[in-house]
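Deliverable D4.2, example record:
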Amino acid sequence: RNPRGGRAKAIDPKDVAAYAAYAPEHGIEVILGYAPYTANPASDKQAEHDFTMMVLAEDLARMAETPQAMYTLQPGSALGKPVDEALARVAAALNDVITPSQETLVLVQTMAGEGTQVGSTFEQLARILDQVKFDDHAGVLFDACRAWGAGYDLAGDLDGVVEEFDCVIGLDRLRAIHLNDSQNARGSRKDRHARIGEGQIGLEALAAVTNHPKLRDLPFYLETPNPELSGFAEEIALLREMHVG
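Output generated by the structure prediction step:
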């Protein structure tokens, strides 16, 4: 599906079979799907709600074609409404689409806090997940750039950030990490990605995230502005050079 929403092309069973053969040969264990940016589960507007629920239902049906996959969505924006109500709407949306029999994990993404975004604090994410009925099918995607923008000091106090996450949300709910550097200073409330080592977080801090004993076994996904695939290959090689063990 286009990141801005719209219709999704029908899945070809031949593509599913080709992926199933390709993935184990190339070390691909867990893929991560991404809801379109236009989905806003926090909104109280009926049209936005209907669109969001349609997208989530369709996407999760598609994700069922690839077992052991994960799917992430942004919790969205309150649009001037009370935050508590917005968080409850996000949880209600998850309760409407998550079933006890599905294999796909649904992850709520950490946010930078731009505008009226919800989910920029660990407390808000915990309040969403605490209202999810089948919470063993839900979790958190930690986005480095967004957490940095929200004020979490990955460069100066990574241990403190990890401990706070564990105390407020629980590390058992942390299922994946987006690795990206940030164009902006910590606490800017902006989500503007930079290539690994070329932003305000820095290479050493991001490498420390991949090496942290409580994080290192999680799946990591690059989400950096590379115009060519070779750029991602360079970043992967760089991080692997700094990987301990």
